[in-house]
Amino acid sequence: MSPREYQLGKRTAGVAETRTRIVEAARAVFAEDGFHRAPVEAVARRADVARATVYYQFESRLGLIEAVLDDIERRGGQQRVLAAVALADAIEATRRAFEEGSRFWAAEHILVR
Q1: Quick one: 94 and 66 in the same domain?
Q2: Quick one: average pLDDT of 77-81?
Q3: Which pLDDT belongs to residue 48?
Q4: Domain identity same for 35 and 83
Q5: Together in a domain, 66 and 82
Q6: Could you give the CA distance from residue 64 to residue 53 in angstroms, rounded to a whole number?
Q7: Do 60 and 17 fall within a single domain?
Q8: Which residues have CB under 8 Å from 34's CB, separation 6+?
Q9: What pLDDT shows up at residue 8?
Q10: For residue 35, what are the domain limits?
Q11: Does pLDDT of 113 surpass 70?
Q12: Is a pLDDT exceeding 70 seen at residue 102?
């Protein structure tokens, strides 16, 4: 019997897709139920994975929440808010930070309850 041939590229892509699917599911569940009330089981069901898969990917419920918050920062453009605050001109920094912050909060309704 020949040993099984592994194709790590495909497996790596599958793991990344699963992780993305879990984060998307968590965003949806957290938006509906809030961060504190949403059970990991609901996230797993929505992502169509076992609860153990969620814990394998993120180690803990807190790890899952941190991954969702990282995704929110990336999608919402949090880096633009931070760049605006760093401007040398205080008035321009305040104006830009307000504009970018408003865009961020408008884009990420999951944070506004």
Answers
A1: no
A2: 80
A3: 96
A4: no
A5: no
A6: 11
A7: yes
A8: 113
A9: 59
A10: 8-71
A11: no
A12: yes
82 lies in the same domain as 109: yes
Q: What is the 3-state secondary structure (H, E, C) of the chain?
A: CCCCCCCHHHHHHHHHHHHHHHHHHHHHHHHHHCCCCCCHHHHHHHHCCCHHHHHHHHCCHHHHHHHHHHHHHHHHCHHHHHHHHCCCCHHHHHHHHHHHHHHHHHHCHHHCC
* pLDDT score recorded for residue 105: 80
**What is the pTM (predicted TM-score) of this model?**
0.71
pLDDT at residue 37 in the model: 87
Provide mean pLDDT across the span 101-113: 73
48: left (phi over 0), alpha (psi -120 to 50) or beta: left
**Tokens coding 108:** 């990420």
Q: Same structural domain for residues 49 and 25?
A: yes
Structure tokens at 57: 């990917």
Angle, helices 8-33/61-76, rounded to nearest 10 degrees: 90
From residue 29, give the alpha-carbon distance in Å to each of 23, 32, 57, 63, 69. Answer: 10, 5, 17, 15, 13
